[in-house]
Structure formats: C-alpha cells, structure tokens
Amino acid sequence: MPFVTSFREAFAFSMLTIPILDNRQLTEFYRDGFVIIRNAFSPKEMQRIESWTSELAALPEESGKHWVYHEKSKINPEIEIINRIENISPFHAGFAELSKVLKVPVVQLLGEETVLFKEKINFKLPGGDGFKPHQDSQAGWEDYAAYFINVMVCIDEATVENGCLQLVAGYQNQGLFREWEPLTDEDMKGMNFVHYPTRPGDVVFFDCYVPHASEPNMTDKTRRLYFATYNRLSEGDHMARYYADKHKNFPPDIDRVPGKEYVFRV
Ligand SMILES: O=C(O)CCC(=O)C(=O)O
Hints:
Elements lengths: L1 H12 L9 H10 L1 E4 L5 H16 L8 E6 L7 E7 L6 H18 L3 E9 L8 E4 L13 E7 L10 E3 L26 E3 L6 E5 L4 E3 L10 E8 L6 H11 L17
Antiparallel strand pairs: 1-9, 2-3, 3-4, 4-11, 5-10, 6-9, 6-11, 7-8, 7-10
Helix pairs in contact: 1-4
Bound molecules: 2-oxoglutaric acid (AKG).
2-oxoglutaric acid (AKG) binds next to strand 10.
C-alpha cells in the first residue's frame, strides 16, 4: 500500500518519469547495497533538471534559503568555486518534484513509507575536490534514524577522469565502522572500490553503509550529481532537526562567522 500511495502522489504532482525498480534491480540492491539504473530519465527530462541546477547556482545567496558552500579550486587556488548546494526542495519547486518522484522506488526498496532526510548537489566543477572513502552514516546520521537510502541522479557525465562515484559492493550489512571519521586503511583491507561512470539520466541507489569515494576533478569538464536521502517514515521526519543541527556546526558560507574555522569531517 505505501508504494501505491507514494506512486499516486508523485504521479499527480509530477511530469517526470517515476523510476520503478524491477525484481532484478531490487535483488541487486539487496545483494550489493547499491544498484544503477541507466537512462532512468530521458534527455528531455535531464534538460529540465540541468536547467534547475544552473538556475539554483545563479540565484543570489541569501541567509534562510538554499545553502551554498564554496571551495578553493585545486587547479587555480586563487579561484573560489561552488562546491555544493544543500537544503534545496523547500526553496525550489523543480527539485521538490524530483525528490517526490525518487521517493517511489525508495518505498519499493524499504517496503514502507519513507521521508526525505536531506538533499544536495555536489558540483565538482573543474578543480573541485574529491571525497575520501567513507560511509554516509559516519556523518552522524545515526542520531536521526538507523537506516537511509541515497538516490543519486547524474546531471553531467561523470567519468573516471572527472571523479565519478566509486562504490564497494557487499559491505552494507556490516553496519557502521565509526562516526565522524572517514574509513582508515585498516577498515579498507579487502574492499574493492570500483569506478562507476554515469551519464546524464542515470540514477544510482545506495544505502548509508556502502563504502564510497571519488577523486578530485582535475579536468575542464563539470561533474554535477544530485543526491536525495530518505529514511523510513516510521523512524520520524528529521529534516528540520538535521539542518538545524548542521547549521550550528557547518553552516552555509553566507551564515559563517568571519575568522571562525569550520572543518568538514565526513
Ligand atoms: O559527489 C561525489 O563524488 C561523492 C559524494 C559523497 O560521497 C558524499 O557527498 O558523501
């Protein structure tokens, strides 16, 4: 029933394709902790999603709106580039639509009603940094719920060269290694990080325990990926509290206290 309800809700609300997982894809997710759906969105749909992304990046940064973070380019450290945008759907109708549509296959995977926990777009512009090997729940997520599923939508082609996602299969049932620190060399013994290049319209589902990483983008090609994260509704709706807590420790650049140091941990 939760699947039917979420499907009806998304169908009534959105013009986007609702990605429905078949039995083979569900089995693959339960086996590996992740599954990749190629061409889940059409080129026309991706034009819309790409235009929302560019629109968001061009908006003026304002306190109390979507959160923008910058970083120093690794190609030219004189330049500040957008690193990521978070807290999106409450301020953008297009992404609100996308996050409703992506919820439907997450309900399929969990077999129960789910709720959006957080969202972000990792821009990884030319010169953008990579991500050390980690599990997403290492970023303190267990304070909110026990289990999460991420859905990644590929906006620009992600290649080995520009820092596509690398995932490790089969570790999702081992649970959390430890909080607030990326994986150590010792943790990673025996793990096989595999590059998964993706094209615009591809969608990746992976859970909060899947070890993953990506390299910096030292090419001249932008690599933007959208991530929406959901938890079981039976574990509560935590988005407001999550963002309030995060704002205290790692606020968007517009809300930072000059001179104070903010450290990204995981
Ligand atoms: O965007 C990427 O390459 C990886 C993202 C990631 O691992 C994260 O945001 O936790």
